[in-house]
Structure formats: structure tokens, C-alpha cells
Amino acid sequence: MSLDTAQNMSHWQERTELAAAFRWTARLNMHEAVANHFSLAVNADGSQFLINPNQAHFARIRASELLLLDANDPDVLDWPDAPDPTAWGLHGSVHRRCPHARCVMHAHSIFSTVLASLADSTLPPIDQNTATFYNRVVIDEQFGGLAFEEEGERCAAMLTDPSKKVMVMGNHGVLVLGDSVADAFNRLYYFERAAETYIRALQTGQPLRVIPPEIAERTARELEDYPGQAEAHLGAIRAILDHENADYAT
What we know:
By secondary structure, the chain is of the alpha+beta class. It has one domain (5-243): Class II aldolase/adducin N-terminal domain (L-fuculose-1-phosphate Aldolase, 3-Layer(aba) Sandwich). It contains nine helices and seven strands; from the N terminus they run H-H-E-E-E-H-E-H-H-E-H-E-E-H-H-H. Strands 3-2-1-4-7-6-5 form a seven-stranded mixed beta sheet, sandwiched between helices. Helix 3 (85-97) packs parallel to helix 6 (149-156). The chain is globular, with a radius of gyration of 18 Å. The relative contact order is 0.16.
């Protein structure tokens, strides 16, 4: 099976939102050349999903180029326009196992990857951004190599708790889940900011002022309930791209 023109035009709103997220991730230098992948479920059980084409740079991805895959189709890697096998291994596994994971973003952004490389990859609540993720992160300490199907299945099995929407992939990078493109991208952005704050604080060599657990939890809940921030964030990104006549939505 290969994508025809009609399939490339399906789920157009979702395609344009995801394409905008790719473009902005590249602009923030949170991408990794032509690697890393974002995906978005487009049916009720999450088994059908959009994902970036194989070896495409985030800065050039267009809505019409996104692949539409079925996580239950074992022949997907035999398509003429087959996805990257690690994209299939990781994202296909997550979409099969975790229907709550509507949008899945995996990146090797610098500060999140530094955090993932520490012997203790815990992110302590030392400011508002780090507190956002208090008790809401899965830490994977069993890196098993490239995320082909076996490694993807292992990672997906750790993401079944809907309250944990970030995975620090030890010795690898970060993976975030969201209810939408806006939700996932906002989480990816703020986790990278939080990781940067923590790493830079460590670099000072000074003691950290850690927020008490009850305040960190309250802050995390307040931010979870903060209305409309993720949607406003993505909307502003799209407005900037549209003003620049970017071709992401083509």
C-alpha cells in the first residue's frame, strides 16, 4: 500500500498543525538533522497516525508529505514510501499500546538529552517550569539501542499511565505525549526549557533551592489546568509562519 493524492489531503487540519510543529522545532534547534519523529493519531483507537516521511529535514516538512500509517499493518516497511524503521518501531508501538497518546513527539534536543545522560535523570522542582513536571515523568534506564520494534515495544510498555506524559529516554533523548499537536509541542518546549534551567543551575556548582513537594505538586496541577496556553502557543507559531509565507501548509 502507498499513499495516493486523496490520502495526502485527508486530515488536513491535523497535517498543517503537525507540519508547523516540525518547522518550529527546527527553528529552535531542537531537531537532529533528518532524524527524530513526531506522530499524530487520527482515528478513535489511535492505530492510524500521521508521521514525518523518512529522512526529511524538519525545516522543510509540508503537510501533504506526512505519511498516514496503520500501526497494525505489518507490511508498512515494504511500502515504496516506507517510514524510517526506528520511527515505525517507536511510534507504531506507542500508538498500538497507548490509545491515550494522541500525539507523540520524540527528539534529541540538547538539554533533555544531557538530562537523559546523567546517572540520575530526575528533574527536581527548582522553578515553575521544572515544577510543571513534578511526579509526571517516566525515566527509562534500560537503553537497548536504536528504537527498532523490540526497543519500541519496551518503551511503549512504560507509557501506559495517562498521567505520565514525558519519558526521559536514558542515554537517548526525550519522548512526550499529548492530547493534540498543540498539547504535545507545548510540553516538549517547556520540558526542554526546564531541562536547560536545571543543567545550567548544576553548572554553577551552587546548592539548589528545591521547591517543597506540596508546592511543586500544586504548581503542576495549576499549570495543567491553565486554560488555552498550548493552543495559543501553536496559534502564535502558525501566525508567524503564515506571515512569512512559509509553505508548511501545502
